[in-house]
Amino acid sequence: MTDRTATSAHPAQNENSFLGGQSKEAIIISNNLMTMNRAFGRDISNIRDNDTIPMNSIIDKYEIQLMANDLMLDNEMRVADVIGNTEADLSLADFPKAPGDPLLASREILCSKPVVEKSKAAVNVEVQPKRLQKKASLNLFTMENCDILEINNPQYVSLYAKEIFDNLKAVEEKYQAKFGYFAQIQNEINERMRAILVDWLVEIHMKFKLLPETLYLAINLMDRYLEKVPISKQKLQLVGITSMLIASKYQEIYPPEIRDFIYISDKVYTKEDILDMEGNMLNTLFFTLTIPTSLNFLERFTRLVNMDKKSSFFCQYLIELALCDYIMLKYNPSVIAWGAVQLTSKVFKIKGYEDVIAKNAKEDENNVKLCCQELLLMLKGAEKTNLKAVKKKFLSPQFMEVAKTQIDFL
């Protein structure tokens, strides 16, 4: 460990203690990136309302600056070494005075070689290179246009959107019930009973005005629990309302109270019944509540293809129809979302989406086509089935009455 007395003998180090051990070069790199980020944000704001977005010209404008900063980062990794246990000090005199323009500053610094002074106490000590983690720079070339447009909105986390989506894609199958669990686990209930329960839960979801994510999480919890535990007919509804209660606690700011669920179940179950089932479900599922759903993937896909509001609602109509049908458990949530986008694109004659979705979804095309056909059959069957909750929901003005959409190719 470096001696405190020896450290205090270096005024340059004390004067720049706020650097946290970083070199002056790293500080200049950081300042350059911040300057470019602010300028980039201003350019994006200026074109946000235009119909035609010259995105390529904006990206090209900052290509040289980003490459210069990446080269500077590599240079820092080569020159920042630890000599013994004492870090070499770099002062501003080691670098040329940076001009006002970030790009010119980068070019001047790239041509300079900072001086690294050895400590007297470490003359005979073997040099141990200190590997500095390369800082992530703004990589515009791997980002989609929809992410670049929201780069200054922290809620969209545009820099990490692709990594988040890839992670959801990698774990989706792990947190989904397997098709066929009724034949293997359940003896008293069947797929028809499940469909009736899901249709009723959609009505309850509308009555309580809950978030869309709450419904998808509730159905996922219900299926994963039924996959593991045999349930009697009398307790199937209890599993459903308890799943909705857990999902509401997880997703909502003000979730419904237990007495609300007792009331909607016509007081068939008591508070103790619901609490016991809640504990049993959470223990059975190991408290795993953070899961990817088809709604998560659909939100990403509709943004990638820049769908309008009505088309997005129609996609949501399709994937909610899929919630009621047990056979759709054959497909991963991302496949269902992609199938909904494909079918909606045919209905509303949207073009130019295939390459964007294929690059991001990375799914088997044949599997998606089969899913699309299943969704089309469900769309046709929605007119004849007795389970009307989803159709009723999407006939409302809130969802632009997309359930009335005429399908001319059926």
Provide structural commentary.
The structure is a single chain. With 410 residues, the protein is mainly alpha-helical. The protein folds into 3 domains: 4-141, no CATH class; 176-284, Cyclin A, domain 1 (Orthogonal Bundle); 294-404, Cyclin-like (Cyclin A, domain 1). The protein is built from 20 helices and 3 strands. The protein has helices at residues 4-8, 11-15, 24-47, 55-61, 63-79, 102-110, 145-149, 161-171, 181-184, 191-208, 212-226, 233-251, 258-264, 271-284, 294-304, 309-324, 333-347, 354-361, 365-381, 389-393, and strands at residues 82-83, 86-87, 127-128. It has a 3-stranded antiparallel β-sheet with strand order 2-1-3, with no helix packed on it. Mean pLDDT is 76; it is low at 1-20, 48-53 and 78-138.
Task: Considering the chains and any ligands shown, give keywords for the structure.
Cyclin A, domain 1, 57% helix, disordered N terminus, 1% strand, 3 domains, three-stranded antiparallel beta sheet, 20 helices, mainly alpha, 410 residues
Contiguous helical run count: 20
Rg for CA atoms: 29 Å
Beta-strand residue fraction: under 5%
Q: Helix/strand-derived class?
A: mainly alpha
| Number of domains as seen in the coordinates | 3
User: Could you give the distance between the termini?
Assistant: 76 Å
User: Biggest β-sheet: count, sense, barrel?
Assistant: 3 strands, antiparallel
Number of E strands: 3
Range of helix content: 55-70%
Overall body shape: globular
**SSE ordering:** HHHHHEEHEHHHHHHHHHHHHHH
- The largest sheet has its strands arranged as 2-1-3
Low-confidence runs: 1-20, 48-53, 78-138
- Averaged pLDDT, please? 76
